[in-house]
């Protein structure tokens, strides 16, 4: 039975509707990244930066991503002064997603010209009053709809789009290459199912403690496509990741031999 990664956030929930006969393994992006890297799951939505780090380990499912549409609402920087006044401050990064962490640092280095900042990891992806911090996922979405007093909130996908004119690709559907060699037909069949789910999904009417109107608003900004604009954004993010030494080597993100389901 195929082992499928499932990010335990609202943003991917519709894609898993009506899935039967699969072993679904849930977790935060960083957890699923570790599992697919060593072949403990076969296919999963995984952090874009995971692909940048280990492109030789994966195929990418074409026509499918988890991206922002102008903004995203669930990847937020919380600060206690306006962003234009942040210079020598400390910012705590998320424990849950390498992609969002790198994106935030690139925004400060490339777009805001703030090389003096200090970034530090935190153990949990939880809001803590008084901290400048990056929060992602459902925890960030709660903050968006119930804003804490005294802090400034910045949607970092919106900042990226403001400077680049491009959507931001937070996650790709990755297939472990060794798994694909062993389970080619099963994986291709699953890809067909998940792509069809992308085309026909319905927005959930309930999820955790979010209201219907909150869920509807959120999905205005979630984009599952992987168009030429998304691929251009991916390539730019990789170039900047190399420029600021988060990644050693640039590679061709458009190489068709790396894609499945094209």
What does this structure look like?
This protein is an alpha/beta fold and 262 residues long. The protein folds into two domains: 3-69 and 168-260, Periplasmic binding protein-like II (D-Maltodextrin-Binding Protein, domain 2), CATH 3.40.190; 75-164, Periplasmic binding protein-like II (D-Maltodextrin-Binding Protein, domain 2, 3-Layer(aba) Sandwich). It is built from nine helices and twelve strands. Strands 3, 4, 10, 11 and 12 form a five-stranded mixed beta sheet that branches. Strands 8-5-9 form a three-stranded antiparallel beta sheet. The protein is globular.
Set down the secondary structure blueprint.
Elements: E1 3-7, E2 23-27, H1 29-37, E3 43-47, H2 48-53, E4 58-68, E5 75-79, E6 90-93, H3 98-111, E7 118-121, E8 133-136, H4 137-145, E9 152-155, H5 156-164, E10 169-176, H6 177-182, H7 184-200, H8 212-218, E11 222-223, H9 228-243, E12 259-260
Parallel strand pairs: 1-2, 4-12, 6-7
Antiparallel strand pairs: 3-10, 4-10, 4-11, 5-8, 5-9
Helix pairs in contact: 3-5
């Amino acid at each position: 039975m195929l082992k499928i990664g499932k990010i335990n956030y609202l943003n991917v929930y519709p894609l898993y509707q009506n899935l039967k006969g699969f072993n679904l393994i849930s977790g935060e992006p960083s957890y699923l990244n570790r599992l697919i890297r060593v072949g403990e799951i076969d296919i999963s939505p995984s952090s874009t930066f995971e692909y940048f780090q280990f492109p030789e380990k994966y195929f990418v499912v074409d026509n499918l991503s988890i991206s922002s549409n102008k903004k995203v609402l669930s990847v937020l920087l919380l600060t206690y002064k306006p962003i234009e006044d942040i210079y020598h401050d400390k910012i705590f990064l998320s424990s849950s997603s390498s992609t969002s962490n790198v994106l935030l640092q690139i925004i400060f280095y490339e777009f805001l010209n703030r090389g003096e900042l200090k970034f530090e990891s935190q153990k949990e992806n939880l809001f803590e009053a008084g901290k400048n911090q990056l929060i992602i996922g459902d925890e960030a979405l709660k903050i968006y709809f119930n804003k804490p007093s005294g802090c400034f909130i910045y949607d970092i996908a919106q900042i990226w789009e403001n400077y680049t004119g491009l959507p931001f690709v937070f996650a790709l559907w990755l297939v472990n290459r060794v798994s694909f060699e062993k389970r080619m037909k099963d994986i291709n069949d699953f890809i067909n199912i998940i792509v069809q789910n992308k085309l026909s999904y319905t927005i959930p009417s309930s999820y955790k403690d979010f209201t219907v109107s909150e869920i509807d608003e959120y999905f205005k900004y979630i984009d599952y496509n992987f168009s030429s604009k998304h691929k251009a954004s991916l390539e730019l993010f990789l170039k900047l990741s190399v420029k600021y030494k988060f990644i050693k080597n640039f590679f061709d993100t458009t190489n068709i031999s790396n894609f499945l389901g094209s």
